[in-house]
């Protein structure tokens, strides 16, 4: 479990037990719990589907899901996890969807189980009201092009291999900026389709809010012998004279 949170880059979580009950040296934060929930949804969607089950029966015993927001008709809640200990209080990491938009809330230290649900609902309702999910880049759409050396084409179309969805303050799509950085100063053939050659940075108000791999949209094989000789000469002049 600790290896998993370390792989996610989380700095404020450390587990001492597998059951989550109070233990010396065991701690987490609301942000880390939300990010763990995000990874659960992203990385193991089949397992995540269990969290929306309102009840199940095992060994003749009917068990109800303790996440009361699953029964709330005003929100499309499908998870995630409740918890309670004497030291931590009543906790709930919840997630809900609205169209392409998904929000995750994390409430810790609640005094009652109803209180954690009420505060979670406030956060999710506020988020859906004041934020929106936009689709600035789609698969197959050219975002940029760059010169290619030693290939049968002299330029490469670059974009993304997955549709990009970003959740931003409502009405701020016009202010969203996107730029890219290549992994190397030059692109040399052969280049494979969906080969990662750089990073796209999405910025809002001068701050990077998301990064996505920049990939080659179409395969570019090596050029013929004479074409590569010509490119070699051009590249030498390019290096000499900039």
UniProtKB/TrEMBL annotation:
UniProt-listed Pfam families: PBP5_C, Peptidase_S11
Gene Ontology CC terms, in alphabetical order: plasma membrane
Listed InterPro entries: Beta-lactam/transpept-like (IPR012338), Peptidase_S11_C (IPR012907), Peptidase_S11_C_sf (IPR037167), Peptidase_S11_N (IPR001967)
EC number: 3.4.16.4
Class in the EC hierarchy, top level: hydrolase
Predominant localisation class: membrane
A GO molecular-function descriptor: serine-type D-Ala-D-Ala carboxypeptidase activity
Superkingdom of this protein's organism: Bacteria
Residue ranges occupied by any Peptidase S11 D-Ala-D-Ala carboxypeptidase A C-terminal domain in the UniProt entry: 131-222
Protein name: D-alanyl-D-alanine carboxypeptidase
Species annotation: Escherichia coli
Gene that produces this protein: dacA_2
